[in-house]
Amino acid sequence: MSLLVVLLILYIIWDVNxxxxxxFTVLAGxxxxxxxxxxxxxxxxxxxxxxxxxxxxxxxxxxRYLRELDFARFHFYALTNLYELVRQRGGGAVQGASSVRYRxxxxxxxxxxxxxxxxWWDDKAIYLEQQFITLADGFVRAxxxxxxxxxxxxxxxxxxxxxxxxxxxxxxxxLKLWLDAIEVSSQKLRKDK
Length: 193
Prior knowledge:
This protein is of the alpha+beta class. The protein has helices at 2-13, 16-32, 62-80, 82-88, 155-159, 173-192; strands at 42-47, 92-102, 111-121, 125-134, 140-151. The chain has a 5-stranded antiparallel sheet, sandwiched between helices. Helix 2 runs parallel beside helix 3. The chain starts with a helix and ends with a helix.
């Protein structure tokens, strides 16, 4: 009985399902998919359930998109071994910024996949593009850009340990515009102080 009370308290004060899903996503990727190059696209699958929908019970709510992107990033880090290399150097990874463009909703009970790809990096961060694609029609429902700040590591040096990332690609035009917008916002906030 006391174990049941402890579990109930854990479910009330922590998002236990989030942690279970994180562990499952990483372990399933490592056990069943194997290693990927850091420049490869990684893929996870999901289903829009009744826990994911908005107040109208018809499609995935905006908060769930961001949550699902977390799982896809953890999966990417695990399959490419990138996070392990960051940890070996005493560093960490933290979400610095994200931008999601919603193109069409994901209806309830529709399966989808999220594809994650490293598109660029600088000395402090990696930049990922992630796409939500419904399986029934192959339509890209949403596209996200993510800035993952890597702490206590020089990202350029770190990525040189991957032969496929020896040469950094050109910065995509949409990423440049997004980073410019972030800088304008930062300058504006600095002036407000």
